[in-house]
Every structure is written in C-alpha cells, then in structure tokens.
Q: What sequence folds into this?
DNA sequence: TAGATTGTTAATCGATTAACAATC
DNA sequence: TAGATTGTTAATCGATTAACAATC
C-alpha cells in the first residue's frame, strides 16, 4: 500500500507535537487524502481505532511502522556515483526509516577508492561480493540509461529483491523483485504537461 | 496524461535506432504497458496511425513532443542547494526536454555567491525578482521540510505555476498550480514494503 | 484478396468515496 | 443519553483491457 508511508509521516509529525489522539478526518487532512480512504487503509492493518474517539497516535505509529518494516535494518547499495548517486549517498533522510547505505559501487576506475561520506567507492566487479557480504536488500540504480539493465540483472542475480531505478529507461526484472522508477525529467514533463495544455506555445500564431 | 513522456522516451530510442515504423504492440512492450492502452492514449492525440501498418516514428515523436511542450523553453528555478539541489543543478538530462535551470536560490548566506555549474546561487530574498526576470515557469523545492510550504507559497505568488517538491511534506497549493512530489525515503519504503510482507522480521520469534 | 494493425466500443476490474450502523 | 467517530458496506467512478469492425 503506497499511502502507508504518507500516514506514517503525518503521524510522526503529530507525535512530535505531543498530539496523542487523531481522527481519520484530521489524519486525512494532514496526508492530503480522503477520510474514508484513511479508515479503510488503517482497518486493513487491524481494528486499531476507537469509535467516538479516534486513533492513538503512538500506538498507530508502532503498528504502521511494524507493517512497513521501519524497525528492520535495510542495507542499501548505490550503483553509479554521478551527481545524483552522490546526493543519495549523502542524503540523511534514509536513516530514520531503517535504510542504511552499506556500499557504493561504480564502473569508472577513476571513482573507485574515492571517499563519499563515510564510505569508499568500490569497483563494479565487486558488486556481487558487497551485496553478499553486506546482506544488501535494496539496490539503487543511478547509472546511465545504457548500463541500467545490466546493473539490475546483476543486482537481482546477487540476491537483491528491491530496486529503485533513477535511470531513464524501462527495466525488466523477474517476478518477486520489486521495482520503482524515478525519472526526474519525466516528473517535470508530467508537471508542465498540464500547464502547457492550459497555455500552449507562446510562439507563432497567437491563440488568445 | 502521465504515460506520454514514457512513450516519447521509447519513440526517441526507436528513432535513434533508425526504426521508421512501430506497432502499438511493440511500443507497448518498450514502454512496459498494455497495447490497447497505447492505442487509446495515442488516439486521444488524433488519428496518427495507419491500420495494417502502425505508426510513423518520426511523425509521432513530433506529435507527442508538441503535446508535451518539449519544444517550448521551460525556465526552472531550484530552491535549496543541499546535496539534492546540487545534483539537480548539475543534472544534464533536463535540457533535451526543454527544461533549463535558470536560477539557483538558497536561504543560507554562506551559499549565496557560490558557483554551481554555470550559475551563481542567489539569496532567497531575490526569489520573486529572479522568477519575474527569468520568466520562470517551474519551481523545484529541494529545501528542508520546515521551509518547503513557505517557499512554495512564495513561488506561487511570484507566478510559478508548476512545482516539483522533494521535501518530505504535504504541500498545499491553490487551484491552477500543478504539484508533484518525489520523496526518496518514501519510494524506498514503498519498495521494501512488498519485500517485508513476503519476508517479515528476521528477528525474534521465527515464523518459518 | 489475405494479413496486419488501428481506433473504438463495451466489458471488466479495481480504486475511491458516500453513507450509515455499530459503538465508544 | 447525546455526540462523535470508527469500521464496513455498497454505490460510484475511472482506468484498464479484451475484442472486433474498419481499413490499410
């Protein structure tokens, strides 16, 4: 369920504001969704609310966190240390959700041995061994489009079961492997699409 | 339509491979979707295919590109130049889609004046003026969660109508402003959710 | 003409949400 | 008891996709 992390974020915010109880209405507002949807989503986890009262924030944080596995340790390998890979390597937002960058891998010999944060970049030749040694569960692909599928294949055969892909290409992975894609250009393109529809061109023949 | 950029990416790939004609079946395969969906999406743009033959790749690139506004110039302002903001400022994938980083803005006086790529970071005090001067249409929010809403408000009142938000917070924007969110921790969390469901814990009481 | 493939209809599926009985 | 709010049903909505007539 893709909305659970959003609820967790809102709940953690409430908890840090010392709020002890929250209604589905309020949680929905904070999370930017419909209240009925919140209740339905939460009821899927179990019957954790109290009619007439609402949900206990602390208890719900525990339950949602447990469902999402945030208390687990998720070692992550980042493949490709261009600008984006570096930003991810230095990103401190992962820690609180159980993610830990365990290894940095790049194919460029010039980058191998370089320190980024507290880690040292290792060669792509060692991909399989760092995955095995670090019990890496998640791979982040921040390579060029050209090498992304090859990297994904190697991650999968090394045992990685979750891949977050930043390369602008459609990857194929076997059943049982989770894949998500973030394509920054595409996000911008979707965003401006609506704008362009409303106010096309600004060129040539005027339309208004 | 959020799939158009995916089709465009596949079509550009075909074009660079000198492929002149493509069927909905093949385009669907390359884009990772259903063929009927491709035909339906494309028919919304107009009747650009030929029955029994397929679609002309070059022509379709033009039509989809025009629909998406890729030939237009989209000046972008990046607010917040931490690791992520820097990576975005240096990212070269934007150019081919019509996006151009026109200004870099940060609230930290220590960063103002610094050169990143070909641009110089300016103070947040000048946000409104750089937006106006550069006719900036798109704002990228790469600040902390705490300042994101304030930045978004200022972008909107300065005239920005499309916002891409990387801060881990739900932003509210008025009608007519497009908003998309990319939360990296959340992507990872959604990703590992399915994995965690299949193989929970690895702690305490064994379940298998 | 026979084969291929589009464009579009209509059926299917799943997600969203209003509504309300249950109940604190 | 009266008010509030959950959990869940059932209706609604929109998106997906199979199927096929149109037609190159």
A:
């Amino acid at each position: 369920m893709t909305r659970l992390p959003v609820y967790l974020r809102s709940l953690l915010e409430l908890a840090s504001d010392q709020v002890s109880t929250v209604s589905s209405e309020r949680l929905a507002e904070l999370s930017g969704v419909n209240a009925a949807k919140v209740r339905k989503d939460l009821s899927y986890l179990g019957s954790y609310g109290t009619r007439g009262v609402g949900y206990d924030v602390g208890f719900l944080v525990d339950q949602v966190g447990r469902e999402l596995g945030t208390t687990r340790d998720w070692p992550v390998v980042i493949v490709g240390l261009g600008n984006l890979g570096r930003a991810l390597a230095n990103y401190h937002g992962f820690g609180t959700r159980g993610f830990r960058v365990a290894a940095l891998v790049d194919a460029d010999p010039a980058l191998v041995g370089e320190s980024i944060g507290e880690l040292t970049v290792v060669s792509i030749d060692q991909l399989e061994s760092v995955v095995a040694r670090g019990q890496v569960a998640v791979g982040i692909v921040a390579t060029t489009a050209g090498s992304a599928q090859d990297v994904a294949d190697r991650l999968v055969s090394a045992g990685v079961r979750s891949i977050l892909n930043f390369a602008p290409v459609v990857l194929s992975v076997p059943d049982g492997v989770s894949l998500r894609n973030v394509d920054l250009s595409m996000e911008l393109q979707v965003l401006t699409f609506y704008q362009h529809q409303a106010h096309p061109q600004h060129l040539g023949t005027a339309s208004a």
Summary: The longest strand of chain A covers residues 99-106. Residues 34-37, 40, 50-53 of chain A lie near DNA strand C (CB under 10 Å from a C1'). Chain A has two domains: 4-68, 74-186. Residues 203-208 of chain A have pLDDT under 50 and may be disordered.
